[in-house]
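assembly run, all chains below
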Amino acid sequence: MECLKLRDLLSLRKGKCDIASHSLNDEVQNAQKENRFRGSPRTPVKSELVPGGVPRRKCCTPDRIQLTPSKPLDKPSPEPWSPTANLRMLISAASPDIRDREEKKKELFRQIENEKVPPAADVIQLTAAAAAQEGVPDEFGHQRPSRKQKSLGLLCQKFLARYPDYPLPTEKTDISLDEVAAELGVERRRIYDIVNVLESLQLVSRVAKNQYWWHGLPGLALTLGVLGRRGEQLGYAQQLAQLQRQLDGKEEEEGRDGGTGSQPASPNTRSKAVCMNSRKDKSLRIMSEKFVMLFLVAEPRTIALDAAAKILIEDGQPESADSSKFKTKIRRLYDIANVLTSLGLIKKVHVNERGRKPAFKWVGPVTPGRPDGAVDAEDPCGKMAQLAAACRLQFEEDCKGSECGRKDGSVRGEAAPVVVTPAT
DNA sequence: TGCTCCCGCCAACGC
DNA sequence: GCGTTGGCGGGAGCA
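ok done. output:
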């Protein structure tokens, strides 16, 4: 039943598959769209600020915004049984964690909307997390935001709060990096970090210098499907399992050689398609894609940070997996993880190996590309599996007859992936 | 003490 | 040459 409704959703966004495969893989087209801004150059968000400069969560098109300025999450949806509503309900029902997150999200929006005249720097404090932690007084007794209050995750939440989760297919929401940075009171550099990760999930796409389009969550299931399949084709599951075994057995050795002592994954498990050396290939967007791929193919869906870092380092530069590279990769993974956590796709956990080993657990929808539709141990009712089935159907429908459903599993703009052979 | 990750330098890139 | 983009690592906050 739910699946049929999701199929209806697809009819609204035909061609999304092309978009996904395009921006995931087609560097050439990315280059072509440089400075070719196809939409209206204005950023509607600015006009939606309350006098104090607090961004108000958008729920629809700019026109409708003026008519219905109240936030969408606190009011009944105008289309309570729309396909997207069904999907959201499924997601929400599937996990208490996700329900908690929704509540926190509502609280965040509530605070942002209710607070009056907050200077940009103070906006940082208007979050659920910030409410629990006061800023640190400086030498003048002023409250300066704590480290947590300035975190990328929190910044990402505020960023996300500006745009509707499920924009109408017809509406084009522009994002001006300069404006967003100014309104959130941060440097543009930080916005790049967020946008890059969002771009890896197709939640936004770059249309010109400083300009992005907001796509929102409707295409997320499709994107996860594509990433999941690519992850499988790249042999990430085998790499991960192999590395996990190595890490488990060589903890002591690892401590001596700076944390990169494990042998690189066998060349057989590395696809030529992912060899990366250029600046672009090392971008946060690519790294984020691969990080997500790891989650989508991993079983269980918990990945230690060091394991992910090793795979991502060795993916591109097997010969230079030194300690500094490892540390840098870890830093970047933290950046990515913060954004993914804000999106509610992963959550931080610790695996019990010699105290607390940082790891992240996938709490988002199960990848639709996964054939098993595996039921989480924490999902005994199988609601996640239900969502997985819905997502899988959506994914397959979207890809039917389109290039991203090529038999070899490759996607448009990308060479057919090399068949990988797991190392013995 | 080690984990976490903010911050901003500066180089690659594109026009 | 200049503005944009974003890799990178120092170092400080935090548990």
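Chain A is about 45% helix and 10% strand.

The mean pLDDT of chain A is 58.

not gonna interpret more than that til we talk
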